[in-house]
## 1
Amino acid sequence: MTTARRDTYTPETLLSVAVQVFNERGYDGTSMEHLSKAAGISKSSIYHHVSSKEELLRRAVSRALDGLFTILDEEHARVGRPVDRLEHVVRRMVEVLMGELPYVTLLLRVRGNTETERWALERRRDFDHRVAELLKAAAADGDVRGDVEVRLATRLVFGMINSIVEWYRPDPRGSGEREVADAVVQVVFSGLRST
Amino acid sequence: MTTARRDTYTPETLLSVAVQVFNERGYDGTSMEHLSKAAGISKSSIYHHVSSKEELLRRAVSRALDGLFTILDEEHARVGRPVDRLEHVVRRMVEVLMGELPYVTLLLRVRGNTETERWALERRRDFDHRVAELLKAAAADGDVRGDVEVRLATRLVFGMINSIVEWYRPDPRGSGEREVADAVVQVVFSGLRST
């Protein structure tokens, strides 16, 4: 079986196995031995694909970060009233989180012990900052309430979105994704109370 | 110094040290040795106060759970329209979380490896269920929007509130607490968009 799997191994499948192990054991608690066992290939086969455990981490969190930053380049995030751009970004963040669930989960658990982790935290802060700027612009337009401080509102919205990794499990039919994204947008922008 | 601290030790101060260590190292990763070192008292002195590490965990998560369940017995949580009772509960959850920060943080990290952890998870589920029932009653009254499914809305609201443990640090003047509680209530019930 090991031989069979070795033949079909690609950097992509190795990454997917590594992310799963990182999420289960924690990045610090994962050794190359663990990865080799989980992947069913030898350590030297892993080194054929990547130079280190940290390179796997970098590739994995890059995938999550690229997914998030791509949102900001989308037309609906760049053109229009800030409040509508913000709504687009919030919806797409939920979609990216669900679509890249293990990668975003790993990104959210990064602690800052290695250079790669510190880089990932810095990129996360950049992203948070970009979203906070959008919220600030929407507040300046009077489209977002002024009685909730921008940094606090950003933290609460990110808190709600990021908490989805704790309970969301992909539905093979993908039917739940739209419902979750809609619900987040409804709560964040309109609240639960009927008007 | 060890002797001096030993004299003033109470079950209360021991609990406070234990919770801090559990939060830093994880409950599983904490030994009686770690607790003894952090508290500056011998292991046998600890056993004078408690029978096991698990008893300390039970006392700590009980403190958080008691704080949360007490909310449900408050007059404003029992009397009035469900939507207003729900608003009271949400505000008070935020206050209890900030007031009992290390205890609630520990409660939210419980994994279910021991009997005490499974008991704590069960009590958390009970609490979540009680809040979901309130949300359902408010929706039945037409006071809460019907287009967000109750279980999903409950998860998102708990997600937002629980995420506060990730960044909130007590302000000696306590001035930030009111602002955070107000912000959560505003976002959850009215949303960010100006109307």
Note: Chain A touches chain B at residues 83, 135, 138, 142-145, 147-149, 152-153, 155-160, 162-164, 166-167, 179-180, 182-184, 186-195 (CB under 8 Å).
## 2
Amino acid sequence: MSRSFSDWATWHQMEIFDASKSAWREGEKALIARACRQFGACVPPSPFGPGDDCALLGRGAFLQNVFATSDAVIFGRHFDADAPPRRVGEKLVKRNASDIAAMGAAPKFALLCAICSKDVSADWLDEFCRGAGQCADRLGIKIVGGDMASVPERFFSAHMTLLGDSDFPALLREGARAGDKICVTGALGFSRESGRHLDFEPRIAEGGFLARRSCALSRGAEGASACTDISDGVAADLKNLLSPETCALLYSERIPRAEFGGLRASLERALCDGEDYELLFAWRGEFGPLEREWRGNFECEICEMGKIFDASEFARRFGIPDARQCAREIFVSENGRPPARFSRGGFSH
Amino acid sequence: MSRSFSDWATWHQMEIFDASKSAWREGEKALIARACRQFGACVPPSPFGPGDDCALLGRGAFLQNVFATSDAVIFGRHFDADAPPRRVGEKLVKRNASDIAAMGAAPKFALLCAICSKDVSADWLDEFCRGAGQCADRLGIKIVGGDMASVPERFFSAHMTLLGDSDFPALLREGARAGDKICVTGALGFSRESGRHLDFEPRIAEGGFLARRSCALSRGAEGASACTDISDGVAADLKNLLSPETCALLYSERIPRAEFGGLRASLERALCDGEDYELLFAWRGEFGPLEREWRGNFECEICEMGKIFDASEFARRFGIPDARQCAREIFVSENGRPPARFSRGGFSH
């Protein structure tokens, strides 16, 4: 491939692989933020760009109220040689559908791009495709295009871009305020051991219900004020629902913990395992009536497990000297004891 | 990761990597066709599914007349360590934009998913992202989302899904008939040596013009009847404009051949190199008036290089015993000599 001299000069300082300058040095979040800075003016603010579960395409003649998201399954990272290929295909569709559901939309059209090494077995790929296709069909998704590329050996990845639409405005991560209740569907933790990271069901109808009920807020009625799906774990994903002025308090005994092999997930596992693909949302109003309406419509469990506080008020009430130490933090109260700050590493008392 | 017993039984016959059963055995086209068969009922027919330059999303309340396409740049396959990262980023955007242009639409929204090994240099990635971002901005594209995933070492791929829209019906690959002229923009061949596989300009305005003029066909006026962009080379891509009843005749001396380093591309190179990213289209009507209108609007060259024939009539006229040998084939006439069949391997007289 040819180069002009000026390209050469640029390239000369520009080795693609150089572990000492790793793009991942500061973690995934920093890498994505840095990439977006480099993309520059073409990146719109959230929810029209990166930052929520989907991007909302809201400014084109034919692209009104369209939701778009992309996610992958990569061998060695999202699944291993033990995973049944059919389930891997299903997982690809479902993890994207879960992002669409978290904004209250319905998934419609998908593009599937695979990078498939020359030694991937045709039988394995058949099963993978059958899993993806049947799952797409069941969820009302059309696979309309994509791409297949080859690399030499021992590599398989599949990216799906999924588009959805909704009759209601998008249910965003942003929007919760002090006093809103923190609610969650299903049960949390043990997603790997139990195989639920492959078996989960995206909460599409439930997300649609919450989006419909979030419209009611503008009329002063009760409704959902913010929502996301749980992929990294509550300890990480709940922070995305908090503004810099708020914090979250979870009541330990109310956190719905998954069971597997006769064991119940610990608090740590329930909040940090991730890949639950449940809906985590803020509800403005009474939980009782919501719960009754929910049970009339859906099979999955729903739980009120905490509350959003104004960070300054929270600091005053619990005698924390600096309110800034509370902002955007998650606290857990165990059996009525004073709340302790919780993060991925556990409690910091 | 856990499995039920029935999963285990399936899995046991299902190694992901097994070169003796390679999914690529019968080539890319067969692999994609096989994958689509496995996807099953969720795959719509072209142009609403795979098979054209983009998929047309034409059946949803909010997804009317939306065009979607996905393409990648993969290290070692679409670029190598010599390629300036900024140009690689530009290429990712432009090769997708070229697919949108080939259907006469305008690109609008993109999702960018990268798989980036831990040893990819942050400087390299910055340059890549700047190239993609600036190119997107210049072409009116918003990068609204995507994903960054890591793998251990020496790997970089980036997939883009690009959405576009149009005020006109899609300009499809299908639609040409006997008598239509075969036209092409720009010049063909030497795309690697000349660096044009990185430097090309997607023909967005030109595609829009052709889509507008294809509407005229239904009123009996002159216009474009089919279009694609040239990625695999004319020898392969022109076949996509032919129905089972037609064949193409190209006039050797009219084929626009690129020059590089004082050399002019041979016929073989012009038709087979690929990655030209020019528009290849069928025109129903006189070429003269089109050419004059084109020159008033666009800088890039346009060329009438051949004609579409009814395969049976072609066989009769040139004394070919079996018309089936002509169907969907490309013939080249050199300086008025009788046409010879041309394929990727060269002429077969």
Note: The longest helix of chain B spans residues 85-102.
